[in-house]
TrEMBL record:
PANTHER family: UPF0173 METAL-DEPENDENT HYDROLASE MJ1163, UPF0173 METAL-DEPENDENT HYDROLASE MJ1163-RELATED. Residues 7-192 form the Metallo-beta-lactamase domain. The lineage of its organism: Bacteria, Bacillati, Bacillota, Bacilli, Bacillales. Pfam families: Lactamase_B_2. The keyword Hydrolase applies. Keywords: Hydrolase. This is UPF0173 metal-dependent hydrolase ACFO5U_16815. InterPro entries: Metallo-B-lactamas, RibonucZ/Hydroxyglut_hydro, UPF0173, UPF0173_UPF0282_UlaG_hydrolase. Belongs to the UPF0173 family. The keyword Hydrolase applies. It comes from Planococcus dechangensis. GO terms for molecular function: hydrolase activity.
């Protein structure tokens, strides 16, 4: 399994001949190395409805035929845009042909703002547990630090975790480092920082606070083989 990071919270997973994109915010993301025209995902997984996470999902799914997996309210809304969606909810897991997806709790908000300025309710925000090839990847989504992260770590042996460190909208570096103690991944990657002025952070500070896990500060385009 090859996992790559592409700025903000964008993660690509390549496994078993399939390509999965998580939170594909490409256009408007100055940190990403991706282009919408250059991606042909088989599946798109979304943590929540904010525009900097839904990103280019509709355009990508229409061009590639990718199935979009999200919490049910967001999936229902995106389904009206003419794409294939699967709506799930927190605690639920499903075995797809590209791997197993399970949605976990996250503490944040979730709404999508249309081009006309309308705000669409996106249901609960979520983290995502993805399992394939005997490995488990956890994308925490946008969240604060919360105690049930310990349950996630106890219930799942996490090989690689992506956690937000930007502060302001999510947990900052110090809380994220404590979250790593609860999640207990083998390797952790900081995400959701430096994209916008309010979330400017030094990932080295986060790294210096983490104990018990390897910290990989990934640049857009960097990859990890699990």
């Amino acid at each position: 399994m090859k996992i790559s990071y592409h700025g903000h919270s964008v993660v690509k997973i390549q496994t078993q001949g399939k390509t999965i994109l998580i939170d594909p915010f490409i256009n408007g993301n100055e940190l990403t190395d991706l282009t919408v025209s250059g991606e042909q995902p088989d599946a798109i997984l979304l943590t929540h409805a904010h525009n900097d996470h839904v990103g280019d999902t509709v355009e990508l799914a229409k061009a590639s035929g990718a199935v979009v997996v999200a919490t049910v309210e967001l999936a229902n809304y995106l389904g009206t845009q003419g794409i294939e969606t699967v709506g799930m909810n927190l605690g639920g897991a499903h075995h797809f042909d590209f791997g197993t997806v399970k949605f976990t709790k996250a503490f944040h908000s979730s709404s999508y703002t249309t081009e006309s300025g309308d705000v669409v309710y996106g249901g609960m925000p979520a983290g995502i547990l993805f399992e394939a090839e005997g490995k488990t990847v956890y994308h925490a989504g946008d969240t604060e630090l919360f105690g049930d992260m310990e349950l996630i770590g106890k219930r799942h042996s996490i090989d690689l975790a992506f956690v937000p460190i930007g502060d302001f909208f999510t947990m900052g570096p110090d809380d994220a480092a404590y979250a790593v103690e609860l999640i207990k991944p083998k390797t952790v990657v900081p995400v959701h920082y430096n994209t916008f002025p309010p979330i400017k952070q030094d990932p080295e500070h986060f790294k210096s606070q983490v104990t018990g896990a390897q910290v990989n500060i990934m640049q857009p385009g960097d990859s990890i083989d699990l």
